[in-house]
Design brief:
13 strands, alpha/beta, globular, 343 residues
């Protein structure tokens, strides 16, 4: 994977290539989930303005899923991207998580016929004739990954999808999928407080020439430097159910943030910028995704790509936030079993 510096003011964000077969994308991507209520109410106009600001800054990778607010997020992105040159951005879309009309999830569906059905709806909602990276959100335990990937390969051959991606699976599943069709990237949670990917998955990706798009780089805001122990998650904010934000755990986890704050101050950056820069510094095969819902948060995140972390800086950060130092699982117990790796 290579990193290249853009040369124009309109496109000041550097680029990275996702693995050996994937597309070139901005070195920082925008995850749109939070714009559809995952963290409480979001302002529609501000969300669209944030997408526009990202485009103007040279961000080209936008991540969504068909089950984010039951299609709302795809429709929102379609509105924000309307009129833009389709070749100027890349859409990463997850599918396969089943929802009901309430807040509950109903499992996963990776059957080949379901893949094509989900894709047809996403193409229509997004107002596009192709999706750049299409990926099952989780492994369907009842469907061999070869069958799910085989259906995506058919859609690639037909021109509806450009690249195959995966999400939250283990190294063995990555290998099985890659044997059917080259995988461009694995999307998985990776941050200073979520490092399970380092043991087996990341080495396998590098062996196979597969990129990694890292979500949760700010721990859903926990290590952004903006969360406090007395802050309550509002209505509809999924962090109210997150073990890492629960009483007892959150206080401990925020001590890690305070340790980061001192390092960030010495580097002349914010805590959030330090956390993003740390992920980006783990390899040029990694593209961090930030879930900025406002132009203010996006403006804070973008300079993280210019934070140069030396070997001494990385050692100091490692000492301040050692692997496994966070308290609480990264998801509620009911969701942990569906992950390819742990915390």
């Amino acid at each position: 994977m290579t990193t290249e510096k853009a040369t124009t003011a309109e496109n000041a964000t550097p680029t990275r290539t996702l693995g050996s077969t994937g597309p070139a994308v901005s070195a920082l991507g925008l995850g749109a989930m939070g714009m559809s209520g995952a963290y409480g109410a979001a302002d529609r106009a501000e969300s669209i303005a944030t997408v526009h600001a990202a485009l103007e800054a040279g961000v080209t990778l936008f991540d969504t899923a068909d089950f984010y607010a039951m299609g709302h997020n795809e429709l929102l992105l379609a509105e924000a991207l309307r009129g833009r040159d389709r070749d100027s951005y890349r859409l990463s879309v997850k599918f396969g998580m089943l929802r009901g009309p309430g807040p509950d999830f109903g499992g996963h569906d990776g059957r080949p016929e379901a893949v094509k059905n989900f894709l047809a709806y996403s193409l229509t909602r997004l107002g596009t004739d192709h999706i750049d990276i299409y990926r099952p959100a989780r492994l369907d335990p009842d469907v061999p990954i070869e069958e799910t990937v085989g259906a995506i390969k058919e859609m690639i051959d037909a021109g509806y999808v450009r690249h195959l991606g995966l999400s939250e699976v283990d190294a063995a599943t990555v290998r099985r999928a890659h044997a059917v069709h080259p995988v461009a990237d694995l999307q998985i949670e990776y941050s200073l407080i979520s490092r399970a990917v380092e043991a087996d998955v990341l080495p396998a990706l590098r062996e196979l020439g597969i990129g990694l798009t890292a979500y949760g780089v700010l721990g859903r805001g926990l290590i952004s430097g903006h969360w406090s122990a007395d802050r309550a998650a509002g209505p509809g904010d999924g962090r109210g159910f997150s073990p890492r934000f629960s009483d007892g755990n959150v206080e401990h986890n925020l001590t890690l943030v305070e340790a980061m704050r001192g390092i960030a101050g010495a580097k002349g950056c914010t805590v959030a910028q330090l956390a993003i820069a740390w992920v980006a510094a783990q390899g040029e095969d990694i593209v961090p995704l930030v879930g900025a819902r406002t132009r203010e948060r996006l403006a804070e995140a973008l300079p993280a790509l210019s934070v140069d972390l030396t070997a001494d800086d990385l050692a100091e950060i490692e000492k301040a936030v050692p692997p496994g130092s966070a308290r609480g699982d990264r998801y509620p117990a009911a969701f942990m079993s569906g992950l390819g790796v742990g915390n």
